[in-house]
Amino acid sequence: MNRWLVGYTGFLALLLATPVLGAPSAIAPPRYISQIPIPPIPGIGFPGSRSMQVTGIEARGDGFLIKTSGAVRADVRRLEELPPRIIVDIEDSELSSSFTNRSIDVNQFGTVRVRVGQFQDNPAIARTVVELAPDNLRSTWDARYVPELGGVLIRPTGTITYTPPVGPNVNLQGVQLTEDGLVFTSEQPLRVAANWENPNEFRLVFSPAFLPDSFLGPTIDANSPIDNLNIAQRDDHTVVALVQVPPGTRVGDLRPLDSSRRRILLPLLRRNAIERPVSPIDIYDEVPNGNGFRITIDAGHGGKDSGAQRDGVNEKDLTLGIIRRLNNRLRGLNFYTTMTRSGDTYPTLADRVRITNGSKSQLFISVHTNYMDGGRNDIYGIETYYSHTDSARLAYILHRNIVAKTGAPDRRVRIRNLYVTKQNSVPSVLLEVGFITNVEERNRLLQPAYQDLIAEAITQGLIEYLK
After folding, report:
1. What's the whole-model pTM score?
2. Distance CA 441, CA 313 (A)
């Protein structure tokens, strides 16, 4: 099985043109050294959450039901690498000791097997893996708790489209590192899927494809926008490329360079080379002697939209308090900032995107508080959302800083097609800084000192991101 590994370590560029025996199948994710958490604000602490029990699995006419002992949250995503799989993580959940038949073979919806296991213990996450048929490359899935059914219903959405590999394998000829990014070339049109599971590793899956011995790779040195490139023949019809990206580089969306799709570009942009489209509208309030970096900061909800509510506390008020403090900190560092709202007003989601574009902002940050339905009040912690690959690094850095600074539980970074993160043309994230449904976390969020702590964490994260 052919494998290419191209990397830069110190002053040595490593280029192996022959198969690497025993090479790892994936680049290990980076290890972060967390900041020392600031001690909890006196009088307020985080309690332990209670885990729900996963008690069974059932194949239904409309999908697959993962039975639980109560209301839970489910996070669904698709793994593009072959064989294709749907991953559903059920949070704060443990497998019941009476749940013994944890795998079933199925033949519906283009699937072959559904299995459930305990992914991790702290915080408790039960993971369901839906194994898809090899030719099921484009089906989309949804997973959500249905009270009437007493569990999480995993179901296909829309029309399932089967896209089996057609024709012979496409021979990959090589990859060049140009000033625009990595350019993959082939003899025939390329089919490629991509995903980014962490902020430093981007995966490309070519199928049907073959990696010949004559494949030509790039030279990577200290000035390159990537740290490592690992290309391997995963199976008879699949080639996987793993690109390790340093903090100073942004990854754009794949695009063909010709109508025949024989040349595919993965854009790689250095931080100081990023340009933004200039809008004729100019509504930002410049700070004297500002550093030129423009950020739109968004307090979720507002006006007629109170957001999540609990015991007289409105999400819109908490988010505005945090954003005002964040605005003061950023302006104190001479950033150009635009607030989508500075009072109890209601800009629509489309308005918030227009404000970002009109202010010529280079980043968009939205702050929200979270909510747990089903009457549960024991869930708490930090979640962060993004939509596009060029927002991943910002999301992970801000998330890590907020978790470290507040000491709140890490409820992970997630990919979601939220309007403000999907429609903005600049790196955009949505920060869920706590659960309004948890009394201890709600009490923290009401404290000005804690709001300022969150604003400080976001500021530190931005400084790290821009290094």
Report:
1. 0.53
2. 12
